[in-house]
Design brief:
It contains 3 helices and 2 strands; from the N terminus they run αααββ. Helix 2 crosses helix 3. It has a two-stranded antiparallel sheet with strand order 1-2. Helix content is 47%, strand content 11%. It is mostly helical.
């Protein structure tokens, strides 16, 4: 059986944290370097995860500021 790619696992973890309110709307995600270090993955893996979160409407990228949660419960 095939295991999930690391970026997908990280994406799902972060998405669940956003949906459960652990990471509320307006909060900033850790920098890619910090997230990579803390989760034991590469910066490229974090990049993919953050891009997916943006595409799915959970976060947005703000130039020179980082990634912020924009998801709000309906």
């Amino acid at each position: 059986r095939q295991t999930k790619p690391a970026y997908l696992s990280l994406y799902e973890t972060l998405r669940d944290e956003i949906l459960s309110g652990i990471r509320p709307c307006g909060s900033r995600l850790p920098s890619r370097r910090v997230m990579a270090r803390d989760r034991g993955v590469s910066a490229v893996t974090v990049d993919h995860s953050y891009e997916l979160l943006c595409e799915e409407g959970y976060t947005e990228s703000r130039p020179k500021s980082g990634f912020f949660v924009i998801y709000r419960e309906e």
